[in-house]
Structure formats: structure tokens, C-alpha cells
Amino acid sequence: MLNKIEKKPLGAVRTLLLAVVMCAGASWASVEVEPLSSAELQARYQVLIEEMRCPKCQNQNLAGSDSMVAMDLRREIRRLLEEGFSDVEVQDYMVARYGDFVLYRPPLQRNTMALWFAPGVFAALGLLTLIVIVVRSRNGRGGRQDQDAQELSVEEQRRLEELLNTGEQRGGKNND
After folding, report:
1. Where does residue 98 rank: exposed (0-12), middle (13-18), buried (19+ CB within 10 A)?
2. SS3 (DSSP) at 103
3. Cβ atoms within 10 A of the Cβ of 79, count?
């Protein structure tokens, strides 16, 4: 009985220790260890890494990505800022190396027009479709059938009764 009492606290301590180690590992992953030489450079650095996309992660900015590529790019941006490059020069450098994809807001060019105008075109088409559906439903042409169309002809009624009788006969044989 004494062994059971001693094992329970030890298991709880192990579980707690494991949880603390797992949480600490996640918090250490995104810590920047190399500070910049001035607060102004640090502020510019933060803006740049939040406005640039990680080429590997694709939907994360450099600030939020823990990939090796993002770490290298952050290091490179830090180096360029320390060497006296302006924000525009840093962005131009990154675009020359990785293309417009590295920017969250690529410039309006011929090859990026779809990125800029496609959402508006799709929204306009959706709105137009919605308007057409509402107008048709108000005019009585949107999916409702006329009373005359709901009634079956004599031939259709005969065929329906024939199918129903055939189905009942088969259903009766299968249930026996």
C-alpha cells in the first residue's frame, strides 16, 4: 500500500515537468537573440519582417515563421539594416532574390493584376448572381413551377400507377 502512495505523486511530478518543458520549448522557438544596434533599427526591422512573407511557409510572415529560411531572411534583413540600407532598398534586395512573392502587398504590375483585381471581380459576379436570383424569385420565375405544370397528364398518371403497383408487388414478394 505504501508503494501505491509513493508512485502517484511521482507520476504527477513527471507529468507536470513534461508540460513545463513542452511549453518552454515553444516559447524559446520565436525569440530573437541578436538585438539591433538602435531602437530605430529595431522598429524598422519589426515592420519589415511583418510585411514580408516566408518563401517556405507561404502564408506566414517572417516574424511568425520558425522555418530555417525565415531565420536566414531575418538575419539577412538585420545585416542590411545594420549596413545602412533603407527600407525600400531592403525590400528591393529581397524582391530581386525571391520575387514579388516575398511581399504581402506586391506592387501593381502586369503580372500581379490578377492578385489585385480578382477578388473584386468575383465579388461583383457573386452580387450579380444574387440579384438575378432575387429578381427571378420575385417575378415567379425562380425555381417555382406553375400550378398547371404540377398536374400530371392522363398518360403520366397511368404510368405512375403502373410503376407503383409493380413496386408493391415486388415489395410483397421480397418481404415473405
Report:
1. middle
2. strand
3. 12
pTM for this predicted structure: 0.50
Q: Please give the full DSSP string across 25-53, using - where no structure is assigned.
A: HHHHHT---S--SSHHHHHHHHHHHHHBB
Q: How far apart are CA 153 and CA 160, in angstroms?
A: 10
Q: Is 61 helix (H, G, I), strand (E, B) or coil?
A: strand
Count the alpha carbons within 13 Å of 36 in the hemisphere toward its beta carbon: 20
Separation of alpha carbons 39 and 75, rounded Å: 17
- The DSSP output letter for 56 is T
Q: Dihedral through CA 154, CA 157, CA 161, CA 163, nearest 10? A: 110
pLDDT tens by residue, the chain, 176 residues: 555 545 556 667 777 676 766 665 544 444 455 677 788 888 999 999 888 888 888 778 888 888 898 889 999 999 999 999 999 999 999 989 888 778 877 778 787 788 788 999 999 999 999 999 998 888 876 555 555 556 788 898 899 899 999 877 776 555 44
Dist. CA 138–CA 64, nearest whole Å: 50
Residue in the structure block whose three cell numbers are 516566408: 54
